[in-house]
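Our example pasted here:


***
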Amino acid sequence: MSARRKARKRALDFLYESDIRKAVALELYRTRPADELSEGAYVETLLSGVAEHIAKIDELIITYAQGWDLDRMPSIDRNLLRIALFEILWSENLDDKIAVSEAVSLAKELSTDESAGYINGVLGRIIALKPSLAL
């Protein structure tokens, strides 16, 4: 498993925990011992980026996740979408296809049978509209 993939999974863990505990993911991350966080900098980049752009990210999820209310969406799926959208819209040196592939792969591994296809569809719609989005 690549370092970036490990970082995405680790960021997902913190976002999931923050949903359950009603805490701030970046603060949870910063309270962990350093030896537990081998993926380091990219985990922090993802958590900081999601936190910084959460309003726009959630707006896009609500708009393009047809048939799903953000609060009723499985937490894993919601947070995979958040990570992928941050990477797609604000990470300049990452191909959109990689972000989608990683989100879909993690969904297959960690979420429901339908999640991977659903996440792929939502991200695909947003990528198609990316040039016209006001960020």
About this structure: Residues 41-64 form the longest helix (24 residues).
